[in-house]
Amino acid sequence: MCSARFARKERGVQVDPATLKTYLVASTDSLGFSPSEQGSGLINFTKAVLGATKGWNLVAYSLIDPETFRILYEYTFERLNITLSIGPIPPVKVTYLQFPFMPPGKSFEKDLFVEGSSSFNAEAIKVERYEIGIYKNVSLTNAYDPILGESGGWRPLYIPLDKVVNVSDFDRIRITLAYPRSYFYNLNKSYVYFDALSRLSLYLYEWEDANRDGKIWYNETKLISLAAGWTNVQGLDLKRRNVKLLIGVYETPKMANYWTGELHGNVTEIPFEIRVEGLKFARDENVMLKIDGNRIKVRVTAPEEPGIYEGFIRIYTDKDEIWIPYSYQTMVTIDGFDKVKVLELSNLNFPPDVSWRYESGDWYPIRILTEENLNALSLNVTWKGEWNGISAFVFDGYGRLLTSNVFSGGLMEVFGWPSTDWMGPAGLGSGGFYPPEPSTIKIPARTNSLYTLILHLTSNSVEEKARPKVIITASFVRNETTPPKITFEDRNWTVISGVYTFNWTVTSKAPYKCYYRIDLGDWIETRVNRVKVNTTGGADGVHLLSVMVVDASGQTAESTLPFIVDNTPPVIKVEGLKNGDLVSRRLKFNVTVDDTSLALLSVKVLDKWYNVTEPKLEVDLDIRGLSGAIPVRIFAIDEANHTSEELYTFYVDNEPPVIKLVSPTDGQLVEHEMRVVYEVYDSNLANVTVKIDGKIVEETLIDPKKFVDGAHSLRIEAEDKVGQKSFKEIVFYTSYYSTFYQEKMEEVRNLYLAIGVVIGTLLTGLIASVKKLKGK
Q1: Which of 546, 639, 602, 106 is nearest to 367 (CA)?
Q2: CB atoms < 10 A from the CB of 172, how many?
Q3: Which of 546, 475, 530, 478 is nearest to 508 (CA)?
Q4: Cα–chain-centroid distance for residue 578?
Q5: Within its chain, how far is the Cα of 47 from the centroid?
Q6: What is the Cα Rg of the chain in Å?
Q7: Three-class DSSP category at 402
Q8: Per-residue pLDDT tens for 517-564?
Q9: In sequence order, what are the residues at sequence separation of 6 or more whose Cβ sits closer than 8 angstroms to the Cβ of residue 15?
Q10: Please, which residues bridge with residue 307 across strands?
Q11: Fewer Cβ close by (within 10 Å): the C or N end of the chain?
Q12: Prediction pTM value
């Protein structure tokens, strides 16, 4: 590390140590074992240096602001009457996400910064247990490898992992080895406490059956993991690997003295149990990710079940990926109703503490948040079976030890030991613990305070029924006489649609529980004073939201909020006119809306809005002087924000029809047949009527023979579609019969004249003939 920093400095590349560390961590090639921490595996130094100097590989980190801790420490020191000032501390880059402990249902958000790529994806992954395999046997003592013989030392008992569970079915495997504490202490071998310790160790190997004989030889195995601590429980994790895996259980051949480290005597076979948990990766529903540039906003919502939750943020591109571990904890909340809470530790994952210490064990913190009117807490830590040992320590919110089932007593004053279950340092390790007995501890508790119960699991069992159990008992003062009060944030008869959230507040001087129900449904408990109602597909109409509060003193309050479900938009109807109608002089129509929760009805006509809150609007406008199309927009919105809109167009016609009479003309004498010819001008003409002498005629041909000689009236009447009328009237004359008689008399006269001429001619001829005869 120092040489790398020197080389970078000589080349003019300025990279701070924290940044280089993040690149070193991110550059690791996972070996498939110990995946609980980002960067576990083989460091690719070249990749890390090139990434730090050129930004090639993908890295991620979060920032811890030490100012938060400085303020907390100074406040704590002040409460303890200690004067100690801590100067400002700059933010620190870390390659993990640690969230604060939270009450159930509460959320917290942190930022995760990504470098090395501007385009990446991310997902939150947790591990879930799917299968448990149990293997029981006794250890091997003084067993030698067949090839190496006595000179090669003792060998472990090999157990093929796939005989316990099918490894290929899981993403992760967790293996735990446990054996009786009586075999660990061997009190029957020595009267001196911790003088004859025996132990088993848990190993994991890769195995390649090179000679294919089905037997396990030392030169066919590779050690990949070791969980050998001085305690009667060992554990290890590994990612799935496509290789043959062996569990190795090794018993130390000699007993050990805790105080001197001396090895002596021979051991005997130890019964043991191996628990193999098959785990799969799954999406963590409690963790929401939002990518914003090079920043990932990680929002965690604490689940209802108390405990420590762990997982990984997987950040990946097409060429690279990194896994960022995270953890968060749900606190135990103690209110006025939960007199007793039971925590089954079989579901709690104790983080391993394998530090080569006698009975070093695992530590597990449980955060307890108290609410109002609390008098005291009673913590009862119990367990079953000789394979379990547990110590309990209770701290207040300032980190002060309040009580323990293993108080230090004089050892704290003389040796500085935290508790009497710690045996102090020794030759073989950094310290050991002796097993305390199950016990009950009591603490005076304040209201609205935070307490931490830290369990020190010095040994445990693989058996579920024998795992530790914590019983928390609380007592309360219940002398409050003021009943609780419920106040809805929504008004009565609120109209809702789709998904809607009702909110209310509860005023109570005592702890309380809150319940709600819709209409006559079952009461449902809620910790947040709100309820989200999904009315999609439900029935429109009136419904009831009832809220009931019961406080710790036994007093109740109930309130009901009527509300209206409206999933139907307003229905608009127009009366008096239809779309496309013609209007004249006045525009009159009525608009009605069918909606019981109408908020506003608006009509826009002639560029003016007319707004009412009633479901009916009458429109009556003077439109004289206008012509052409008039658009009308009708808009309705109800209290559920449903909208409806209709567009109408009316056409204005304020001009009556124009009539032009071509023939006959006014005063004309019609002596022969004549066609009545006229023209009517109107784009919205409805009908035309022709009248002669006041009578409607269908035939527009004037035949004088059908009329009495003399004057006659001709009237053309026209009406358009809006009822406007006009007419054109003239007088014409007929003289058919007088002319007829005159012509007939003339014909008779002419006939008579013709007859006279003929007679005269005949007489002349006759006279001439007579004269001629006389002359002869």
Answers
A1: 106
A2: 18
A3: 478
A4: 47
A5: 38
A6: 53
A7: strand
A8: 999 889 999 988 999 998 887 778 899 999 999 887 778 899 999 998
A9: 8, 52, 53
A10: 330
A11: C
A12: 0.56
